[in-house]
């Protein structure tokens, strides 16, 4: 390999040039270190070593993840919360690191105060709606939960206001600008962390499918981009993250689309994954999975090659939706990664943290997941939810928010309106 | 007045000392300029002049405001939107001013892109729910509005994502840090501006009362603090805004509490103010104002002085709620003002803008209004809304979000559950 040094301009697209691009040294123009062969050799070695470390921790993560999926909705939720706490921890400590000189003692507590207020706000709502379905039999608990829901918003508001006043009273002269900056960044961090996790949790309860498929697609896209980039990467994709190449991007897109289509078919056959969870129990799930998950049979056209083993294939309608998710996961979600890369460059940090060997911080792995989770939720709500689910959501509201007398009043009123409209139509 | 100069330490609490505190020169210790009488005279003159300018524009604002209240909900909403645009304009241009050196051309458009996306998101929802009540008779429009609502969220999401991608693609080397900072601040500005206005608009449609009373209380508290501070201000309240004194704060609190109680009684007698508005018309409002606005009569106790003109007084139950609003407006809402003061000091600006003579920018007048609007909404939702209103909200949802067949399905299902529970109880 060391002989490569002499070959000069004839191998600009060889492994060494590729490597230089992928190691992120875009400050140094490619011509400068061309003669330095031994250096490249070391880098080449590192390249494989880092790949193995990364693969190793990936296998562990995927294994643990599969176990949690098997354990059920509440455990997945717990996992999301843990990830979220780690993310907040990484980002908060980053906030302090970049301004190490002007460290303020109370501010760390204030950050976590806001964090837990946001947590109460976001999860209190989700939790209480499930809780009410769980305790619907016990009249006292039912009332208690109803009361909790009623004062949930005002409690969160006063917790926030308390933090807000705390912040104002802790302002120190000559530190104003720094403190206001910290306050703003804390809010940004909370938005980032909670947008991600609240949409993810919402997806989980809509059916694990709607959490697992998008999350897997991002992982597949990441791995595929890494592998394609590793073996075929030549043309740099975007200046922001010099490790990414067009070859990796395109290869990953194709892989992701195919995986989405296949994976949706596999996952779509398990009721454990497709049924929504309306309460907080961890028991087995049975439901009518709906038309989306009922296979439709297509005869394979005559002109299909003879080696193709099936003459008839079954496709779940949800697979077409999976293609949309795949398209998003491979084209738009990577922008979450670019954003994170740009952010890291802006503040001159390599990784957001060092929680996962070979991967960097948890936040580094979550950049695209975040964009994806929000999309998956909105896509599901806008294009997938059959009307019958909307009915159930409104039913939930009625049973949760209204006392029994009002439920009856609403029933009467609705009956009246429906009668009127029926007469109006006929 | 010039003779005051010689009296030295014997008048530290006289008008000049008060003045020094109220002019905001807390960088200069009081002892330094004590001998400089002519200076104080000039300041004193300015003090009255600035008060007159301020009073003059206040009268104009209050007059215009009263006219808009008279014109109705839609016009008040329009006013809120105009205020909101001015605020965003002031804050966005501030963002550029503080970093004049590194001005980026496309960023201004991007800011407004996010602004209008947020606007579509926040108001689209409010608008469409009212709209559906307005067009409920026309079957085609009803369906169209239903469709708009259905794709509202996904539209907003893609508009946001477009802005997000635009931002990433517009990142310029060596500007990363500045650009990410701008991105974060843009989000903070949008949160501030839209939290304020979306809660305000929600209040307006709950009944103008719930917008007008809190907003008036803030204005009254501001004016009272100014007047009390002007005539009796001695003891500085908080370092952040040196113009504020304990005397002003306490005087204003008492005034605000009394005003809240009296004002609620006056405003509570007009149906135009107390009825909620469910559609988008501007016609006259008639409704059963509910028990909150039905006067209760109390006999004045015997020991009351004889000069008191009434032997029986009528009190609306809503007046007790008004006291809570008054308490918040005078104790906690001022922290919005402290926050704004601190922010202005941090970034070394005098005002957020110069739209209103004597007052500074519109943002300067909105600091406490914002905190108050959010509280008024949450208070109203948590403690005031009678259950009958909740019924109407859910009815709205049913009629807006569900096609007719599903409305019937829900009706059947609800009937079944109510039947079951009734049997379970008896």
TrEMBL record, chains A, B:
This is Phosphatidate cytidylyltransferase. Requires a divalent cation for activity. Pathway: Lipid metabolism; Phospholipid metabolism; CDP-diacylglycerol biosynthesis; CDP-diacylglycerol from sn-glycerol 3-phosphate: step 3/3. Its EC number is 2.7.7.41. Its main location: membrane. Keywords: Lipid biosynthesis, Lipid metabolism, Membrane, Nucleotidyltransferase, Phospholipid biosynthesis, Phospholipid metabolism, Transferase, Transmembrane, Transmembrane helix. It comes from Rehmannia glutinosa (Chinese foxglove). May be involved in the synthesis of minor phospholipids and in modulation of IP3-mediated signal transduction.
């Amino acid at each position: 390999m060391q002989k490569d040094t002499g070959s000069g301009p004839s191998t600009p697209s060889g492994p060494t040039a590729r490597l230089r691009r992928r190691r992120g040294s875009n400050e140094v123009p490619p011509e400068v270190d061309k003669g330095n062969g031994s250096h490249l050799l070391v880098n080449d070695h590192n390249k494989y070593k880092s790949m193995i470390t990364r693969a190793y921790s990936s296998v562990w993560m995927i294994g643990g993840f599969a176990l949690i999926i098997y354990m059920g909705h509440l455990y997945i939720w717990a996992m999301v919360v843990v990830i979220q706490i780690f993310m907040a921890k990484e980002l908060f400590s980053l906030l302090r690191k970049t301004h190490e000189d002007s460290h303020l003692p109370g501010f760390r507590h204030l950050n976590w105060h806001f964090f837990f207020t946001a947590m109460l706000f976001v999860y209190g709502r989700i939790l209480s709606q499930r809780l009410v379905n769980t305790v619907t039999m016990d009249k006292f608990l039912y009332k208690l939960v109803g009361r909790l829901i009623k004062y949930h918003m005002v409690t969160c508001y006063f917790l926030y206001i308390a933090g807000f006043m705390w912040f104002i009273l802790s302002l120190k002269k000559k530190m104003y600008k720094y403190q206001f900056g910290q306050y703003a960044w804390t809010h940004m961090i909370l938005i980032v962390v909670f947008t991600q996790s609240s949409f993810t949790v919402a997806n989980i309860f809509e059916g694990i499918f709607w959490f697992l498929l998008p999350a897997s697609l991002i992982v597949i896209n990441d791995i595929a981009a890494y592998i394609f980039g590793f073996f075929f990467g030549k043309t740099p994709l975007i200046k922001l993250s010099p490790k990414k190449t067009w070859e990796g991007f395109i290869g990953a897109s194709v892989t992701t689309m195919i995986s989405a289509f296949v994976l949706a078919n596999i996952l779509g056959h398990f009721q454990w994954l497709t049924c929504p969870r309306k309460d907080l129990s961890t028991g087995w799930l049975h439901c009518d999975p709906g038309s989306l998950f009922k296979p439709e049979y297509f005869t394979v056209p005559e002109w299909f090659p003879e080696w193709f083993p099936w003459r008839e294939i079954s496709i779940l309608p949800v697979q077409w939706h999976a293609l949309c998710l795949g398209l998003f996961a491979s084209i738009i979600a990577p922008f979450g990664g670019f954003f994170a890369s740009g952010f890291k460059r802006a503040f001159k940090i390599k990784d957001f943290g060092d929680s996962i060997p070979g991967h960097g911080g948890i936040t580094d792995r979550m950049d695209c997941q975040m964009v994806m989770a929000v999309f998956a939720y909105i896509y599901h709500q806008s294009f997938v939810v059959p009307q019958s689910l909307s009915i159930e959501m409104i039913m939930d509201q009625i049973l949760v928010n209204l006392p029994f007398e009002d439920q009856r009043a609403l029933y009467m009123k609705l009956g009246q309106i429906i009668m009127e409209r029926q007469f109006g139509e006929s």
